[in-house]
Design a protein that fits this description.
Elements (H helix, E strand, L loop, with lengths): L2 H26 L2 H7 L1 H23 L8 H8 L11 H16 L18 H24 L10 H10 L11 H20 L12 H23 L4 E4 L18 E4 L6 H25 L1 H6 L3 H13 L21 H24 L2
Antiparallel strand pairs: 1-2
Helix pairs in contact: 4-5, 5-6, 5-8, 5-10, 6-7, 6-9, 6-10, 7-8, 9-10, 9-13, 10-12, 10-13, 12-13
Length: 363
């Protein structure tokens, strides 16, 4: 039998199997059959069907979004007119699109759901939170640094409106819902972006300077450092307290032990993992936009390759997991440890960001 015939036979058998299953389910849930089984049995069958449907829908909603082409997304906003992709437009467009993905992906925004199946899910809400934090940091950097020439310059009114909108609590269902606040922030960002693309409007500005990028990367560096530490704590660690290291006269509010045991609770492992996945996804897209808008600065500092390496590390952190649960083997054990693997990619990206900031500081 030829390969084509084998494939056709296999497909035919599969179709027949699905047809048989569909026929049996139709017979099982036929009104006459439900009436014959009685109220209790019928209710049980309907509840079972609802649970199976909810589980399938929850699985579909939990699929992580793909990456996107930041330049093409920006072009679509201006009907393909490349002349309007002025400095800062791609960065702002990317922030808006990260927000659009959060709110408009399959299932919508799940962090504030109060009904199943969204209520039962925790992986995607944690993913959303990680991406949201990066969106907040990007909006704050845009408002406080990239849109301002000097410390005494006036901030853009639209950005002053957008940034606090994204800092609204992420789990508010009503009065007002989180989605409504975030959409207002996205609308304000869009207003700034449209004025930025307009050559006749000189009020909205984006300054692609090395010092502005360094200030943004300083925030990112701390975010990634925190995620890396929390992921590494999946196996438990004894850490030396270095809070006051390097400053003889430094003090802190309360006395702390010289060493501390840090371990992420077992039930929180997947929360930290998926928060990191969301954060690295959003940051990777934002840094792709940085590559476009800060291209001249990065080339002058010979730092373009360093940025691309950071993006690559963040993309590696998005590899699909083979296990439906987050495996938490010991560091040198028989089984994998997803958290340590993720921590490795994030730590490498963070180290590269530190090097990039040093390059940007040099003349």
């Amino acid at each position: 039998m030829k390969t084509t015939e084998r494939i056709q036979t296999a497909l035919w058998k599969t179709a027949e199997w699905f047809k048989g299953v569909a026929w049996k389910l139709a017979s099982l849930y036929h009104p006459a059959n439900l009436k014959q089984k009685g109220l209790l049995a019928s209710a049980g069958l309907l509840i079972a069907a609802a649970l199976v449907f909810s589980l399938a829908l929850g699985w579909y909603w939990s699929q992580e979004p793909d990456s996107f082409d930041v330049q093409q997304v920006a072009l679509q906003r201006f009907a393909g007119d490349e002349a309007q992709l002025r400095v800062g437009v791609i960065f702002t467009s990317t922030l808006i699109h990260v927000g659009e993905v959060l709110l408009d992906k399959p299932g919508g925004y799940l962090s504030n759901d109060v009904m199943p199946p969204g209520l039962w899910l925790d992986n995607m809400p944690n993913w959303e939170y990680g991406a949201l934090v990066m969106l907040r940091d990007g909006a704050a950097a845009l408002r406080n640094h990239m849109s301002r020439s000097q410390s005494q310059s006036v901030e853009d009114a639209a950005l002053a409106e957008a940034e606090p909108r994204f800092n609204f609590r992420n789990d508010s269902w009503l009065f007002p819902p989180s989605e409504g606040e975030y959409r207002k922030g996205m609308k304000a960002l869009d207003d700034y972006m449209r004025r930025l693309a307009d050559p006749a409007n000189q009020q909205a500005q984006f300054y692609a300077r090395a010092d502005n990028l360094r200030q943004y990367l300083e925030i990112v560096e701390k975010r990634l450092g925190s995620l890396s530490q929390r992921l590494s704590a999946s196996v438990g660690q004894i850490r030396v307290n270095t809070d006051l290291a390097g400053d003889v006269g430094a003090k802190q509010s309360t006395t702390a032990s010289t060493s501390v045991v840090v371990k992420t609770p077992w039930l929180k492992l997947d929360d930290v993992f998926y928060e990191s996945r969301g954060a690295t996804w959003a940051l990777g897209e934002i840094l792709k936009a940085v590559e476009y808008d800060f291209e001249q600065v990065l080339k002058k500092k010979n730092a373009l390759v360093s940025l691309r390496q950071i993006i690559r590390e963040l993309e590696e952190a998005q590899q699909p997991t083979l296990s439906p649960v987050i495996i938490n083997g010991s560091g040198f054990g028989l089984f994998a440890n997803y958290s340590l693997t993720m921590a490795n990619y994030i730590a490498r990206a963070n180290a590269a960001i530190i090097d990039l900031r040093d390059l940007l500081q040099q003349g």
